[in-house]
Amino acid sequence: MSIQKAVTVKSSPARQRKAKQLEEYVNALQQYRYFLIASITGLPASVLKQSKSLLRQDGSLLKVVKNTVFLIALEKAGKNPKEAEQYLKGQNAVIFTNKNPFSIIFFLDKQKIMREARAGDVATNEIVLPAGNTGIPPGPMISNFNKLGIPTRVQEGSIWIAKDTVVARPGDVISPELAELLTKLGLKPIESKLQIKAIYLDGRIISPKDVELDVKLWRDRLSSAHTQAYNLAFNAALPLPQVLPAIIGKAHMEAIALAAQAGFPAKEAVPMILAKAEAQAKALYEKLKAIKPEL
């Protein structure tokens, strides 16, 4: 067999895999309205698997992609490959969905997928080792406990943690000793999730950094806008269904006050007119009494 034929035979399965991948990507791009590019660099396979399962339950599809093949698929599907190219660096997965892409981001943010700590990881939450039996026999591991400042005692053939101890706070770098200890204790303290890098929306690709995704901020803005619109309609006496009861109530009170001020004996104004007359009479009486105490 010639060298050229050998190379052709050897590379054929690779070309077939790429062709199959390309077909899958194009089909997904045609089937789903939106897609999101997510970085999976350094993401454990267990987290990726769980994310894929969660998204499938939510009606979306997650695929780990080959960057160059996906760019070709984007071109075939007419989905702005040039805009996407800057985001297709490193290892990536693509989420295909017919739902609002921002709802997918919020959905992923709510999913707390925890994994084992590795040396060099940054703690995402406070890590507390609870007091009690660790199940670890005394031996070399005692030096790890001591080095990490964890109070211990040996009891019933095991190392016991004397009291609840904070071993890391958010932002702390996990040391090799702490990573080893947490693994031996069976703890999974690191929150891990897909990092969304880009969103395909309305024919263009945008970065989540360019969009304000703070739900509380938008809720506050909407609430403030509603209040301002209501006050404007009320003060301008716009006959809108939402403000009509308040406008009518205000007009009714102003009419009664006007009638009372003018001494017009309208039914609702009579109590106010009488009260005002009584107050004026008492005031007049006090003035006269000051001049003639014998009154």
Automatic annotation (TrEMBL):
Chain segments annotated as transmembrane: none
Keyword Cell membrane on entry: no
GO CC, alphabetical: cytosolic large ribosomal subunit
One Pfam match: Ribosomal_L10
Top-level taxon of the source organism: Archaea
Residue ranges occupied by any Large ribosomal subunit protein uL10-like insertion domain in the UniProt entry: 117-186
GO molecular function terms attached to this record: large ribosomal subunit rRNA binding; structural constituent of ribosome
GO biological process: cytoplasmic translation; ribosomal large subunit assembly
Swiss-Prot/TrEMBL keywords: Ribonucleoprotein, Ribosomal protein, RNA-binding, rRNA-binding
Family: Belongs to the universal ribosomal protein uL10 family.
Function: Forms part of the ribosomal stalk, playing a central role in the interaction of the ribosome with GTP-bound translation factors.
Subunit structure, as described in the record: Part of the 50S ribosomal subunit. Forms part of the ribosomal stalk which helps the ribosome interact with GTP-bound translation factors. Forms a heptameric L10(L12)2(L12)2(L12)2 complex, where L10 forms an elongated spine to which the L12 dimers bind in a sequential fashion.
Official protein name in the record: Large ribosomal subunit protein uL10
Species of provenance: Thermofilum adornatum
